[in-house]
Amino acid sequence: MKITKGALMGATAFAAIAAGMNAETITIATVNNGDMVRMQGYADDFTAKTGHEVEWVTLEENVLREKVTTDIATKGGQFDIMTIGMYEAPIWAKNDWLVSLDDMSAEYDINDILPAMRGGLSYEGSLYAAPFYGESSMIMYRTDLMEAAGLEMPSAPTWDDVKMAAEAMTDEENGVYGVCLRGKAGWGENMAFLTAMSNSFGARWFDEDWNAQFDSEEWASTLNFYLDLMNNYGPPGASSNGFTENLALFQQGKCGMWIDATVAASFVTNPDDSTVADSVGFALAADNGLGPRGNWLWAWALAIPAGTEKEAAAKEFVEWATSKEYIELVAANEGWANVPPGARTSLYENPEYQKVPFAKMTLESINSADPLKPTVDPVPYQGVQFVAIPEFSGIATSVGQEFAAALAGDKTAEEALAAAQAITTREMEKAGY
Amino acid sequence: MARSTTTKQKIGWTIIVWTIALAIFFPVIWTFLTSFKTEGEAIANPPVFFNFDWNLDNYKIILAGEANYPKSLMNSIIIALGSTLLGLVFAVPAAWSMAFQPGRWTKDILMAMLGTKMMPAVGVLMPIYLFLVWIDLLDSRIALVVILMMMNLPIIIWMLYTYFKEIPKDILEASRMDGASLRGEILYVLVPMAIPGIASTMLLNIILAWNEAFWTIILTTTSAKPLSAFMVEFSTKQGLFYAQLSAASVMAIAPILIMGWFSQKQLVSGLTFGAVK
C-alpha cells in the first residue's frame, strides 16, 4: 500500500514537473474591443487547462496594425499570436509570414467556421487565421420614426427604399437626420462603406487587368447617390464622422438610419448607453437588384507569426479561444447576447442564440457577402470592402480623402473621381501591376 | 488717477492670463471630470459638467483588468529617471567643455545637436528597431533608457550650457590654481554652484521622458511598457469608451502633474533663466 502511494505521489510530481517544463508564456497582441477584453478575463480557464500563461498587449486598431506589421516584417518576435483582420490574412499568408492552421484537432471542427469567414481568412485554400468574431454591416433604423412617417422598412431594402426612408425621417428642426453614414477619410472608414456600397451599384476597383475603374459610370452613380443622401438627409459636418461619431449620434437619437457594422447592434440596443434602445430595427444593407448588397465582411482573427518559438502553445490558445467550448463558456457566464458572433455555423443553429434579436440579421448579412466574388463583374482580387493587396490601404486612404473633400463640398463628384482615378493608376503603375 | 489705471490694467491682465491658463488646462480638467462619468454621460449632448452621478467604476475596471498599472508606473519611473541621470553623465562634461573651453567648432556643434531635434523620429525608426531586434533588446527598459537619453541629450546639453555660461570662469580658474583636478573642478566646484540649473534641467527632462509616446509605444510590449503605452491600451475605435480612456489618462498623467505642481518654482526659474539678459 505504502509503495503504491509513494509511486503515485512520485508519478504525480513527475507529471507536474513535466507539465511545468512544457508550460510557456505566450504574448498576444489584440485590439481593444468588448469581445477581446472579455476573452482576457477568461484566460485563466486556458491557463488552468494547459498550464500556459498569457500576456496581453491591447491596442487601438491602427496602432496594433502598425506594430504587428513592423514586428512581423522585421521578425522582431515580440508576439506569439497576433489579432489580424481579413485584409491582412491573405497578404501575410502570401508572404509566408503566418503559420497554417489546417492541422487543428478533430474536436475543433474547422468545417464549422462560417464559409464566408473561412474563405476570407484563407490563402490558396489553407486557413491562416482563426476567426474570433466576424461582422458584416447592416441598416439600423428607428422603428418609432418610421412608424410616425407611415413607412415600413423591408427586411432587404433597395437603395431607393433607403432614400425614401431618409427623406421621411429627416426633421432638421429637431436635430434628427434621416441617415448617418461614414464620411471620415480612411481605408477602414469612408472607403470601407463606399467600396461595399459600390459593389451593389455594379462598380469595382479594378478590372481583370488591374486597371483602375473610377472613371466608370458605376462609380459615378455610387458617389453621386452617396453625396445626394448625405447632403440632403445627413448630419452637418459628416466628413469627419466615423464609426464612433455616428454611434454617438445614433445613441442620442439624432439619426433615423445608420448603416454600419453589425457589432454596433448590441451598443445601440443597450439601454445604459443608448437613448433609443427600445426602438431600433434591423435590415439588410441595401442593393440595386444587381446581386451584391452594399454590406461588408470583416473578421478579427487570431494568427500565429511564422518563426515564433512557442508555436505549439500558441496553437493551443488559438484553438481554445475560437472553439465551440469558449462560446459556451461565455454564454454560461454572461448570457448568449455576449458571445463572440459571426464565426461559427453551430452558434446560429443554437436555439438559445436564435432568441438574440440581432442574431438572424447578422448571419444573413454575413452570408450575403462573398469575399471571393464581391462584385458584379469579375475582379482579380479578394475582399468585399477592400482589395487584399498591400498597396490598398495607402491608395484607399488617399482616395478616401478625395471623397471626403467631395462630401465637405470642396470638390465636385467628378473632380473627386478623376483624382481617385489618377491616384490609383499612378500608385498601381508604381507598384508594378 | 494713475493708481486706478494700474488697477484696471491689473484686472485686465489677470482676466487675460486666467483665460489663457484655463483654455490650456481645460482638456485636463475635462479628462478628469469625464473619468468619473458613465460612458453615456461622457458623450451626452449638451455636455454635463458637474451635475452627474460621480463614480469610481472606470478606475475599478482599469485596476481589475489586465493592463497592470503598478508595473507600468514603475517602468515609467525607471525610464524617466534613468534616461535623465544617464543624460547628465554625458551632458555635464559636454556642457562644461562648451562653456569654459570653447573651440572653433563649438557653436556649430551646438547648432548641429539642436538640428537633430528637428528630424522626425520616425526617420530613424527602422534602423533602431532592427538594431534592437538584432541585439535582442526589444521591450527592454535599458533600450528605452538609452534611446530617450539620446533623444533628450541635445536639450540637456543646451540647458546646462546656458547655466554654466553664467558661472564666472574665475572661480573655476581659482580652484585649478589651488590644485583641483579636472574631475574635482567639475564635481566639487562647478556642479554645486549649478545645482539649481541641474535640478530644473532634470525636472524638464523627466517630464519629457515621461510623456514620450512614440518610442515607448513602438518598442515595448509587456515587460518594459510604461504609462504612455498603458494609456494607449484603452483607446479604441470599436465602441465608446471615453470615460474609461479618461480614467486611464488621469492615472498616467497624475504622477507627473503632481511632481510638476510641487516643483513649478524650479521649472519656471529654469526655463526663464538667462531670458532677461
Descriptive report:
The complex is a heterodimer of chains A (433) and B (277). Chain A is of the alpha/beta class. Chain A folds into two domains: 2-128 and 298-354, 3-Layer(aba) Sandwich (D-Maltodextrin-Binding Protein, domain 2), CATH 3.40.190.10; 136-296 and 373-431, Periplasmic binding protein-like II (D-Maltodextrin-Binding Protein, domain 2, 3-Layer(aba) Sandwich), CATH 3.40.190.10. Helices cover 45% and strands 14% of the residues of chain A. Chain A is built from 19 helices and ten strands. In chain A, strands 1, 2, 3, 6, 7, 8, 9 and 10 form an eight-stranded mixed β-sheet that branches. Chain A has a two-stranded antiparallel ribbon with strand order 4-5. In chain A, a hairpin with a 2-residue loop joins strand 4 and strand 5 (126-127). Chain B folds into two domains: 7-60, no CATH class; 62-271, MetI-like (MetI-like fold, Orthogonal Bundle). Chain B is mainly alpha-helical. The radius of gyration of chain B is 23 Å and the shape is globular. The model of chain B has no long low-confidence stretch (mean pLDDT 88). Chain B contains 14 helices and no strands. In chain B, helix 4 crosses helix 10 (195-211), helix 7 (141-166) runs antiparallel to helix 10 and helix 8 (169-177) runs antiparallel to helix 9 (182-193). The longest helix of chain B is centred in the first third of the chain and has 33 residues, at 2-34. Chain A binds chain B through residues 27, 29, 31-34, 37, 40, 43, 55-63, 66-67, 70, 74-79, 242-244, 247-248, 251-252, 261, 263, 267, 272-274, and chain B through 38-40, 43-45, 65-67, 126, 129-130, 133, 138-139, 217-218, 221-222, 225, 232-241.
Fold topology:
The complex is a heterodimer of chains A (433) and B (277).
Chain A: H1 2-22, E1 25-31, H2 34-41, H3 43-50, E2 53-59, H4 61-73, E3 81-85, H5 88-94, H6 115-120, E4 122-123, E5 126-127, E6 130-142, H7 143-148, H8 159-169, E7 177-180, H9 190-200, H10 217-233, H11 243-251, E8 255-261, H12 265-268, E9 280-284, E10 297-303, H13 311-321, H14 324-334, H15 345-349, H16 351-354, H17 359-367, H18 392-408, H19 413-430
Parallel strand pairs in A: 1-2, 1-3, 7-8
Antiparallel strand pairs in A: 3-10, 4-5, 6-8, 6-9, 6-10
Helix pairs in contact in A: 18-19
Chain B: H1 2-34, H2 39-42, H3 57-64, H4 69-100, H5 106-118, H6 125-134, H7 141-166, H8 169-177, H9 182-193, H10 195-211, H11 215-218, H12 227-232, H13 242-262, H14 264-272
Helix pairs in contact in B: 1-13, 3-13, 4-7, 4-10, 5-7, 7-10, 8-9, 10-14
